[in-house]
Amino acid sequence: MADSPSDKLAAAEFASAPILGPGYNYASVTDKISAIVLARRTPKWWIVGFLVSFALVMLLMVSVTYLVVAGVGIWGIQIPVGWGFAIINFVWWIGIGHAGTLISAILLLLRQTWRTSINRFAEAMTLFAVSCAGIFPLIHMGRPWLAYWLFPYPDTMKMWPNFRSPLVWDAFAVSTYATVSLLFWFIGLIPDLATLRDRAKNRPAKLIYGLLAMGWRGSAVHWERHETASLLLAGLATPLVLSVHTIVSFDFAFAIVPGWHATIFPPYFVAGAIYAGFAMVLTLSIPIRKLFHLEDFITMRHLDNMGKVLLATALIVGYGYMMEAFSAFYSGNQYERFMILNRMTGPYAPMYWLLIACNIVTPQFLWFRKVRAKVGALFAIAMVVNLGMWLERFVIVVTSLHRDFLPSSWGTYYPTRWDIFTFVGTIGLFLFLVFLFIRYLPLISIFEMRTLVASEEEKKAVN
Amino acid sequence: MKQQETIYGLMAEFATPEQLLEAARHTHEAGYRRIDAFAPFPIEGLAHAVGFHRTRLPLVVLVAGIIGGCSGFFLQYYAAAVSYPVNVGGRPLNSWPAFIPVTFEITILFAAAAAVFGMLAMNGLPTPYHPVFNVPRFALASRDRFFLCIKALDPMFDVEQTRKFLHTLSPREVTEIEP
Amino acid sequence: MEFMDSDRKNTGQPDVDNSALRKAASGGETPRFWRGFDELADTPEFRNHKENEFPHGANDPDAKLDRRDLLKVMAASAAFAGLSGCTKLPNQKIVPYVRQPEQIIPGKALFYATAVTLGGVATGVLVESHMARPTKIEGNPDHPGSLGATDAFSQASILGLYDPDRSQAEIHDGRIGSWAEFQEELSTALGAEKGNNGSGVRLLTPTVTSPTLGDQINTFLKAYPSAKWVQYESATRDNIREGAKLAFGEYLNTVYRMDQADVILTLDSDFLTSGPGCLRYARDFARKRRVEGPESKMNRLYAVECTPTNTGAMADHRLRMRASDIEGLARAVARELGVSTVAGPVAPPNVPAGWIPALARDLKQHPGASLIVAGDQQPPIVHALAHAINQALGNTDKTVYFTAPLEVSPANQWEGISQLAADIRARSVTTLLILGCNPVYDAPVDLGFKEILPKVAFSARLGLSEDETSALCHWHIPQAHELESWGDARGYDGTASVIQPLIAPLYGGKSEVDFLAVINGQSAKPSHDFVHDYWQAQRAGVERFDVFWEKTLRDGVVDGTALPPKQVSLKPGIGAEPPATEAQGLEIVFRPDHTIWDGRFSNNGWLQELPKPLTLLTWDSVAMVSPKTAQRLGGSSRPADYLKSEDAVELKYKGRTIVAPVWVMPGHADESVTVFLGYGRRRSGRVGTGAGFDAGWIRPLATPWIGTGLEIRKTGDRWALATTQTQSTMEGREPIRIATLDEYLKNPKFAQAEAEENPLSLYPEVKYEGNQWGMAIDLNACTGCGGCVVACQAENNIAVVGKKEVMIGRHMHWIRIDRYYEGGVDDPSTYHEPVLCMHCENAPCEVVCPVAATVHSPEGLNEMVYNRCVGTRYCSNNCPYKVRRFNFYLYSDWDTPSLFGMRNPNVSVRSRGVMEKCSYCVQRINAVKIDAERQDRPIRDGEIVTACQQSCPSEAIVFGNINDPDSRVSKLKAMNRNYKLLEELNTRPRTTYLAKLRNPNPEIEKTPAV
């Protein structure tokens, strides 16, 4: 991706690089962002992208239908590897789904104003990733139509779920996370929906946005409560985010399988989640700012910060891998030792080393400001990290299971075409939702941009 | 008196947040109580200026959270130890450490729901109809304009007096709000 | 009886039925008549075509579709054939074992004593019958050849009975015929022969030990003096017969007394898991190895063999050598032991120095308590030598004795079959009546039965399924299964059993007795009467014969029919003439397959999917070579060129070639290749047709078992094989704990070395009151035969998944037998370990199940609740023993009505998407509990017997109440050999193991183990 002049400029005077391009006022930010949504003509690239992603959604539909008709046997899973792509993809998507809430919540609490222009679609991304993730625990079951048995409800046989099982924790954690993220995202949207309502030209748009805006009129008192609510939600969402991926890591850490049964899992899963999440935010924001000419809103400063976060989390994750190997050796437990050696030298060793290359080696380039200043380089690294994080889950799930305690029951896992179709299908679903979002909702929080303008003006006044 | 039934109040439009803040303060000092200010983004101190002091939202959230937590744990305890006690992997019936994750999640869920719906409820949203929207230029309140409204219900309200008073705040214009 | 109604539903559409029946009749899409010609013109191309079509067909997805379609059709046709018949009791009176059925109580099983035969020799069994449906085979404790145990074959005969591919109508030249029509044609054919005393009549039967049938055949031969009776088995025991003749000048039956033998030498014999009496031998053998404490003794087994066998795996010293060298070793041992007459090389090749003398000393030190056993595949001279050595050691009548032959008329079967072929070629056979044999498939290939059989003017075959031979006979008559027919047969020691039908013939089949009755023109007389009358004639003495008869039927054995030991005198000069200088070159050894024998079980899914004990292969036969030989045959020094398992090779022997997959077999003798009979069937059924390759195609008359001069050529193709265990070493872990007897005596607690006394737990201990079930498995007794696996499959309605699924790793067996190698790849020691659900008290699987579908019962069972299971497979991931099995597809056959009858009504048939695993046969536990409660008494120890325990010939598996210190299982668990698998995980398994002991001869330094 070639760098635009403005990028070069931004790269040049870097430290002082603004988080908002010069010369914007309340009106212009409002118009510029809402124009994307209210524009009559749909850009060609959007139509193409939308159709492609829609085709992939259809692929997902076919795969899932066949799965329900024939059974999970169409996948490569077997005994001993009872979990395959489904769980790998689930953890991968859930991980991606964390950056959104994190950016909005934690950065909000930390009063990081640079979050303003990315938090909206980061949150949207969270929702879409979580919906993709949510599909897998459901369809990976032998009898998916009974999935509701994981939730407590008064049952004629007085049966309850087994609350000791991490899968039940998962069910609660993920559904809570999805709900809270949705609410958080929606109350953030309300003032912008009001803006769109007031600016929409055609009646149906006015009507729809009007209904969604619920009669928001920017009253001072409303703003007061709105801000309080946002802060409270941020305060709630932060521990939630951490808990969700902690619980996802319990799916493994709680089991006795060598390679799963490790106390380090929660922290390093959370770090991994932030890592994956930011990688995905970069992956999305870089093309979007180009295509919608939002370089002034999502500036090099943003990309630079995200690059730094990426590097930091990469280091944490790397530490996680190291400690995993170390404690395996230090434990003196022959199964643990064998597990780690098997990862490094066994049949799936290429996956492991590729994972190290993607997640640990590649991000080291981010130490260099030059690299962080290159949009193309950032994008490439982000993509590599996305791949790496998927590989990490593959290594954890498959290489741990395929050779556990009794050599007699060792086996090898090969994915089938249906494993791949389903995975690609969910990527399609994710993009499909992203395309809908960027076309019909403001992908940058307008009212927060106005606040930003206000603070810029105060600064000017001060100078 | 007549007009007071026919109109909802008076609306003054300002160009900048500072002006609105000023205006709001003066209006409140002038003794008007049924007033409201509208801005395209949250303005520090504006709510205070129109006489709104503190919201009880945090309290609601706290209570909801506590309720959620307790009911969450009780649900699991009841299911595992009372309603259908069964030996699972040699663990005690009340394996409370295993019940903590779900308890936590339910706490968060309740609290978050309370925060959102509490906020909406207190703000009286959704509001299908509101008179201020009858002001033609009010659409700009969600863009770059700032409005101050004195409602007709205010005991001190008198169309002429109030209009005069508002003009002293040097607004861009003052309009009557159709009920 | 629900299944009956469902059948009726199935007969709803008559058109389906007719088409189905026509299909069944024509044996496939193309008219059988032409198919016959296809196979007549049996060019290598045709064969290759077959080879390529089938073995891989098993793992191509379309094959699955075919199967489904076929299932539907067969379902319809089975229904058409009037399965409703199967709830009729046979007309004659049959008597249940022990309990008299005043009337059948629904839900309560009745047990009937009968017998199943293999190669004519009977194993006494009890058949569990639900509402007059036989559902399970168990051993008959009163039968000397069983003592309550069963082998995989007899277990699986239940599936053989309900096999939907059984032939269901008389077929006359490709069209449906009728029994009456056949009788007419037969009588005209025989009538024409009456003039010349039936000189053109031939009767071809398998080995006949049945007194009644023999009597009938003799009647026939009296009527037609010049007619000839030929007995034939492809897995023939001619060598044993001829060996006895060589040694004693007459055909004799050899019976071993393992309970008397302290030192045993086997010469290429697998007496523990194959051949007549193997169940009894395994039990007696295991009892001599039950080490309870320092005082107990242990027998010692030397095995000299070419192809690794279970017996070799059990041996304390195993010596691998080419099958054709074993004669040399036998001679050497004989000479060492003073059988003076023996000539031949002083020492056979590749025997460790001092091995033979040490062995000889050991044998000498146990006169009358030692035993030499020669293998079925070894030439007569080896058997003769074995007899001579036993004689020299004074073992005769102590550890081995001889009786009159079991066969009604013992004969050299291979001479018989070749004579028959010659006669047919000479056009001197006009009428050929085949009872059960399948010569077109399994007769020596150079006799060319495929070509000559159509030359016979009138040929008729009685057969269970319409196979290769039926296809070429004018008449095919559906045979009644042993569980459907009256008859009798002798056990390994001559004890006769009456075979009584458990159910009226499902498809109107005719028993051998019926068939002979027709031949003898007595078709009016029911088969029951023949058996009854025969024994009445034998027991002319006894008054109240009816009482005797009832007792006989109830007990399953005819009193006093065990053949008495016979005084024998050794012929002088045994082995005097020097051994035939055997041809050099690569050796080929033929053996009957461990799970489908000579091919008669090839359409039996249970046996096809039963992993072969040493290779754990399913659904395929292989050409076994030793690692060294595989290296040499690779043709170059580059490891890439070595022969590898799953390489397809062309075996060329005596001018015939066949493509086979290689299996590199640790412990196999070098410069020797073993192939197995029974595979490569072309008309077997949906299960067996095309599986594996047909070793018979390169098995000429001259070398039934052992030959040299085999050539091997790599084809470059790969032949994917389905094995259930890919990792063969213990990886420094100790799933099996092993010591020599001395080590054990020095350190009796070696097995519990790293065991914690009371392992810690964060949780309060759960109190387990009352009955607490547990199991102990004695690895010192387990021979790895696999009987338990099939028993479990039959008892628990376990599905068969097919080769493709096994290859992915989705086999469903609840109990599996792990096989580990220890020591070098060339000559390792082999260990077997049955692994089933451990029913852990701290079960990892239970905790992680989100819906509490697997929980602990108050009696300590780890229970799997199928209808609660949602199929997350988390439990399986978290099971360190990996004993859980998952229904990835709908594996259970819910379509084929004939199979409904077979199912155990007390075990639910699993559907798609649920986990399953060993339940400790909870249905049996509950049945006993209910009885005990009704009689208001505690459950007796040993009253509950799990299916695996029940079938185990070596009593390796013991189940019972571990809360009762006096129960057998508690006593075993109290032994110092007792250890828990993966104890360090603190799962507290209730299934524990008794460590394996070996008893090597200190004189022999190099034991195969090291």
Structure description:
The complex is a heterotrimer of chains A (463), B (179) and C (1010). Chain A has helices spanning 5-12, 26-38, 44-70, 85-109, 116-139, 166-199, 203-213, 220-253, 265-291, 300-331, 334-345, 349-361, 369-373, 375-402, 417-440, 446-462. Chain A is mostly helical. In chain A, α6 crosses α7. In chain B, strands 2-3-1-4 form a 4-stranded antiparallel beta sheet, with helices on one face. The mean pLDDT of chain B is 90. Helix content of chain B is 48%, strand content 12%. Chain C is an alpha/beta fold and 1010 residues long. In chain C, 29% of the residues lie in helices and 18% in strands. In chain C, strands 5-4-16-15-14-6-7 form a 7-stranded mixed beta sheet, with helices on both faces. Chain C has a 7-stranded mixed beta sheet with strand order 25-19-24-21-23-22-26. A 4-stranded parallel beta sheet of chain C has the order 11-10-9-12. Chains A and B meet through α2, α6, α8 and α16 of A and β2, α3, α4 and α5 of B.
